[in-house]
């Protein structure tokens, strides 16, 4: 491709972009923003996107998945059929046609694929089957400020498998899991597969694939001693199961703590440690109030609470609900003397406490020397807090550390979550009707592009892995007005094309400094420069990643190319 004719508008500054991938993709002219969270892919960006898609397709095809293309516009009644129109939340984009019929812009396609299969597959003999597609998805993100990492329209590969039994699902899940390992390795990403929560998708046995990066919004709990990794939402906190130490606790005392609402404020006011204070939080789980207790130095884990209760929706109670149930505003809640009877769930660490401080369910007051069983009852003890740095690894007993991660893929065992409610059934080998069993497997294609940039860049620009680079070689003619340089550069360009190598030829009438700066920004793996020694048949090459380069005689280029290209892999 001749750069003189390419749409590749570079920018020197992008003040509105916070993430490095967002900045560099805008600067290099790979993308342009149309609206918040909505981007156009320009030629260089689209070539990278296509390279990622090609790798994904190759690995999907290897495991026997078949490519389809499903509509982006979904009849709203399909989402009502599964109950997800309500539970998915405000991220679901909805619209009406001219006849007032309601539609959803697809953020994912479980409903549509289930609707297709329930009409087309009715016997176990046609299973298992795996289908995948690559298309745009839509989610009304609240804060789409991170470029391709969090967009309102984005490119995604979603796949779905259908089975007659759990063993078949397990086999296919393992195939997809390995395919994802292959895909992300080929993309040049440093990633981890972590235990995760299925969220609005439903199902069990799910893993997220995280590209490790400080730009990530997710916290990954990783072991220093083994391969264990988990999303912080799902990381199990180990508890030895021992009984609390029996000590004599002074009688419960009410203390005025006017204006002291937070754990830090209460602990400071009473001159005690935060771990001696209990944090009481009122949740509404599917319209039912639940009081959750955790130690003051720990963080609540809403996902664990939701899963523990088997709730569809769980939210912190509004202030009016808090006062109605507890009799006091937030900041002064506790399990003693509740206004209404509610279920009380305590974390293991709270159950191990003897002498604690809790809210008095009375504004500006707390209770000191509180002991459960004597002063209040716990209905259920469970792991409901976030794991912390230094906690024990649930796999090997080692020590946990944290890393930031970008979710680039997710695999689920959906089971019969969708087939049951949508009457997706087959006749089994005994002639009995049963819902088919499903798996779901997603990859954020455009998010993967941004993740690669987050992990592969320097102060001068992007450094693309060879597998996804828009071109393998960036050929730069330093001075196109010099006939010798222009002629030699043209000869090199023609030779590289005959070799079947993707090459971008910078034949623009620009200054050398501009060309080299743009070249670093683009991040193409190998640069070949035709400059002042062209008359002697001398050209130069430079590896973008290593910075290693040298001079080379033109007649030796063809022979040297295989080794130069090999160094890029």
Q: Which spans of ≥5 residues are poorly predicted at pLDDT below 50?
A: none
- State the end-to-end distance: 22 Å
- According to CATH, the homologous superfamily of the largest domain is Bira Bifunctional Protein, Domain 2
Helix count from the secondary structure assignment: 14
Mean pLDDT: 93
Based on secondary structure, the structural category is alpha+beta
Q: Could you explain how this protein is built, in words?
A:
The protein has 569 residues and is of the alpha+beta class. Helix content is 26%, strand content 29%. It is built from 14 helices and 31 strands. The strands form 8 sheets. Strands 3, 7, 8, 9, 10, 11, 12, 21 and 24 form a 9-stranded mixed β-sheet that branches. It has a 5-stranded mixed β-sheet with strand order 16-14-15-17-20. The two termini are 22 Å apart. It catalyses: tRNA(Pro) + L-proline + ATP = L-prolyl-tRNA(Pro) + AMP + diphosphate. Its EC number is 6.1.1.15.
């Amino acid at each position: 491709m001749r750069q003189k004719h390419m749409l590749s508008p570079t920018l020197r500054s992008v003040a509105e972009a916070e993430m490095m991938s967002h900045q560099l993709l805008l600067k290099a002219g790979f993308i342009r923003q149309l609206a918040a969270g909505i981007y156009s892919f320009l030629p260089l960006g689209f070539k990278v996107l296509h390279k990622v898609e090609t790798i994904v397709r190759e690995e999907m095809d290897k495991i026997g998945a078949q490519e389809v293309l499903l509509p982006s516009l979904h009849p709203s009644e399909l989402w009502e059929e599964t109950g997800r129109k309500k539970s998915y939340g405000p991220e679901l984009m909805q619209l009406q046609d001219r006849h007032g019929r309601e539609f959803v812009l697809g953020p994912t396609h479980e409903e549509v694929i289930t609707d297709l299969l329930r009409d087309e597959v009715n016997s176990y003999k046609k299973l298992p089957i795996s289908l995948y597609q690559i298309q745009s998805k839509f989610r009304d993100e609240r804060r789409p400020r991170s470029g391709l990492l969090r967009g309102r329209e984005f490119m995604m590969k979603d796949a779905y498998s259908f089975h007659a039994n759990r063993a078949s699902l397990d086999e296919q899940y393992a195939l997809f899991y390995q395919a994802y390992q292959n895909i992300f390795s080929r993309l040049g990403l440093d990633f981890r597969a972590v235990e995760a929560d299925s969220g609005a998708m439903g199902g069990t046995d799910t893993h997220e694939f995280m590209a490790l990066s400080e730009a990530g919004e997710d916290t990954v709990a990783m072991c220093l001693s083994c391969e264990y990794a988990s999303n912080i939402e799902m990381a199990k906190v180990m508890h030895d199961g021992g009984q609390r130490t029996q000590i004599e606790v002074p009688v419960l005392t009410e203390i005025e703590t006017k204006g002291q609402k937070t754990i830090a404020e209460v602990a400071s006011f009473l001159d005690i440690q935060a771990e001696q204070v209990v944090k009481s939080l009122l949740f509404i789980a599917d319209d039912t109030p639940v009081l959750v207790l955790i130690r003051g130095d720990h963080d609540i884990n809403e996902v664990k609470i939701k899963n523990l209760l088997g709730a569809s929706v769980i939210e912190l109670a509004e202030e009016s609900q808090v006062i109605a149930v507890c009799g006091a505003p937030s900041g002064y809640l506790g399990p003693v003397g509740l206004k209404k009877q509610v279920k009380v769930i305590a974390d293991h660490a709270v159950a191990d406490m003897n002498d604690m401080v809790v809210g008095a369910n009375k504004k500006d007051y707390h209770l000191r020397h509180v002991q459960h069983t004597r002063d209040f009852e716990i209905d259920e003890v469970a792991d409901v807090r976030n794991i912390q740095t230094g906690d024990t690894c649930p796999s090997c007993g080692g020590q946990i550390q944290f890393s930031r991660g970008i979710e680039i893929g997710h695999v689920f065992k959906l089971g019969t979550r969708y087939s049951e409610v949508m009457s997706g059934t087959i006749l089994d080998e005994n002639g009995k009707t049963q819902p088919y069993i499903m798996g779901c497997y997603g990859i954020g294609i455009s998010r993967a592009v941004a993740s690669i940039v987050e992990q592969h860049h320097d102060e001068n620009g992007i450094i693309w892995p060879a597998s996804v680079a828009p071109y393998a070689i960036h050929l730069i003619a330093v001075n196109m007005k010099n006939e010798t340089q222009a002629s030699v550069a043209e000869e090199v360009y023609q030779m590289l094309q005959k070799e079947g190598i993707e090459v971008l030829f910078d034949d623009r009438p620009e200054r050398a400094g501009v060309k080299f700066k743009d070249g670093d920004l683009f991040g193409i793996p190998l640069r070949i420069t035709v400059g002042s020694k062209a008359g002697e048949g001398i050209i130069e090459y430079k590896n973008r990643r290593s910075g290693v380069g040298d001079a080379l005689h033109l007649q030796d280029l063809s022979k040297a190319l295989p080794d130069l290209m090999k160094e890029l892999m």
